[in-house]
Amino acid sequence: MALPEAQQKAFDQFYSSARNNTVLDEKTTVMIHLASAMAVACHPCMQYYLSQVDKVGITEEEVGVIQAIVMAVSAGRVMMQGGDAKSCGE
Known about the structure:
Blueprint: H1 5-19, H2 26-39, H3 43-56, H4 60-88
């Protein structure tokens, strides 16, 4: 399914401004993109950003740390949701 042309153009401009920002260095930007792709389970995005790690100097160890951080945040979310759900029933 494709976006209408105007929305695709707006998305492309937004994505480009986030990806090619002038605040963060390229390595940090790719690391954040990769972590975000992992967090939202976007398989094509993960594949793309994993293909970029060598180009920007991200090591396998750094990828592992990124994965561990995403896993920890996800586990914390589940833990907090469980507590919230329990307290709603009391």
